[in-house]
Amino acid sequence: MDKYTILKKYFGYDQFREGQETLIDAILEGRDVLGIMPTGAGKSICYQVPALLFSGITIVISPLISLMKDQVQSLNQAGIHAAYINSSLTENQILKALSLAAAGQYKIIYVAPERLETYEFLEFAKRAELSMVTVDEAHCISQWGQDFRPSYLKIVEFIQKLPKRPVISAFTATATQAVKEDIVCVLGLDHPKVLVTGFDRKNLYFSVETPRKKDIWVMDYVKTHERESGIIYCATRKNADALYEQLNQSGIPVTQYHAGLGKEARRCNQEDFINDRKPVMVATNAFGMGIDKSNVRYVIHYNMPQSLENYYQEAGRAGRDGEPSECILLYSPQDVMINRFLLENKEENPEFTREEIDTIRERDEERLRMMTYYCVTKNCLREYILHYFGEYNHVACGNCSNCLKEYIEKDITKEAKMIIQCVLQLRQRYGINVVAGTLAGDNRAKLREYHVSDYPCYGSLKEYTEKEIKQMIQHMILECLLVQTKDKYALVKVTPEGRKLLEKERKVMIKTVKEEKKEASKDGSGNRTSSAKKRKSDILNSKGLELFEVLRTLRTELAREEAVPPYLVFSDKTLVDMCVKLPFDREEMMGVSGVGENKFQKYGNRFMDRIKEFTGGEKEKLYFGEQNEM
Ligand code: ADP
Ligand code: ZN
Fold first, then answer.
1. DSSP string, 299-368
2. Using 50, 70 and 90 to split pLDDT, how confident is the model at 65?
3. pTM of this structure
4. Which ligand is the nearest neighbour of the Cα of 12?
């Protein structure tokens, strides 16, 4: 069998995605690889396909117990023999699994890193034919990352103890240079093929909204997205509790997760969510590590997170199946205050020196600032994120709230000069609030205390509100005419570029929202350009959507019978493809994206029966327009 046959037979896919093939080919040639791909890009296939082509066993090292279970279940569903060994098993279960493994029962074995040094595992590994060791979440080996796990260092010792060095493949979604170098170096990868795929997630729609009443906004959104699965992240447990109560009382199938709940409650709630018994989750950032639910259609941030790293990771839990999904951040300026408070009260790690603590604090402040700019920028949000992670493309994406808004450009050169003069007159000693208040000619106690009315610039922009002036200052910071210092006082200072503005002929333009385009409705689902992927309601007509519901119900029944999450039966995408192709026989069913041999045998007939019943055996067109390959 070749790699294409494996992809089709076991996973039901016709094509590899970007990057997958390169890594698979390198592995099959016996080369070490490092794959850096964003969440949802399809890392697993990169080692699972070669694992099935190699004659021996592949060991996958993974830090997350819940993820292992999910992966193994999903492989078993596809008809691949796999097992996991971690602390969730009893000693007896482990011995049994190892003896089956030694007898050649499994092609792929997932293990937690701390298992590697146990006597039993090592004895097994030394005798078995190991073709490959795969290190998942490989950034855990780097001390530079946020997720350093000392147990990952044991991987190196483990590999050294093996009689023959297998191919080593490593995967992560963390892209910084330092982490990348660490992985190659610490793991001792031998001239590896390193592949970094773009961080862009094209199926995700990004949006920042500033509703006056966030809870009402959320309620509305959740109700108009009935039956869809989503996560709502809150900054504090208190917020999460309150929002959960509200949604629950209005009859929404919602559950919750935060560190204040008992272990058992958390486990239960998580299961309810994963199995779609309660498809809406209200949680703090404690939720999500190792959650692999592929059909999450939206992630709403009720509060602004502390950094774009956190934001992109959490928002990225939407749309792992590649279907269009929405990432919406509800911003209010108060969020900045909350986060600053949280940072200031963060516990200091006693192992760090004063200097290190200061560096970390400065870094956190900087991250928070970059996060705040994301919420106020008028430019393409996707471009902003990608730029932050080191990708420069400079094209508006057409699939974010800023790209969908219509802006009027306004010349604020005169105002910008006044702002710069004001900052200079105040000797660059104040933050944005004082500067804006001074320009607006405000008379609050704090400003009187600083005697700002003594300066010539006092009230020089009094035809504007303080909020408008702040927007201009924010914009000037984004344009690098002003900077904020990287300490907690965030003083506003003038850059050399800003000083030049006072002398040179140069224009400063700012965008303000004209009005939202009609199609960009309140729920954020606007008129996407053709580059954006389509939603299921754009693909299927009303009868097609009806069939989709019929198939979804069948999927739930099957999932219950087998006690697996519905998305492990078939993904939403596969169901949509069935509604388009209306398969009536084996060949047609095998042509549906996501239907492999094993799943066909298990479920094929039952789905075909429902489809025949629904259509009366007639091939109707239940979709709009031309259907391209999904
Ligand atoms: P990652 O580990 O990179 O976050 P996964 O390996 O979980 O991503 O894959 C994400 C989703 O993409 C899964 O539902 C997987 O089945 C799907 N997928 C992976 N490769 C392909 C492919 N070549 N064609 C279609 N779907 C794919
Ligand atoms: Zn955009």
1. EEESS--S-HHHHHHHHTTS-TTSS-EEEEEE--HHHHHHHHHHHHTPPPPTTS-HHHHHHHHHHHHHHH
2. confident
3. 0.68
4. 1
